Amino acid sequence: MPTTPPHEAVLRGAGLRVTRPRVAVLAAVHDHPHADTESIFNVVRRELGAVSHQAVYDVLHALTAVGLLRRFEPMGSAARYEARTGDDHHHLVCRFCGAIADVDRAIGDTACLTPADDAGYEVDHAEVIYWGRCATCAAPADG
Questions:
Q1: CA gyration radius for the chain?
Q2: Which of 25, 35, 48, 140 is least crowded, fewest Cβ atoms below 10 Å from its Cβ?
Q3: What is the pTM of this model?
């Protein structure tokens, strides 16, 4: 039976010092996938009390830099964070309510994932965001 809480072990495994802000931010992102910085800050502040915006920004940057979090930025939206990393999944974003859902990466020979001209780049990742209406927003209104 492990004696170290999971978030602490994950931080240590990534070579990071365990601090209350790091544990709180990591837990907040796990509990609230696709949250923006302000939402994460509010969750962490409820958990820890006094914490600065800058401390949360610094922790998000550190956790993203070591691959514990993924940052993505849908067009016209604040940056979002999630703990699902390392699988090149994509996102569905509702144009109406802003809901975000994960979708597994496209597989096979998919034209949108291979540039027509790579300009000499060695491409190792493509980020895809699908836009539309979520099921709730697409449902006909009652009445």
A1: 18
A2: 140
A3: 0.84
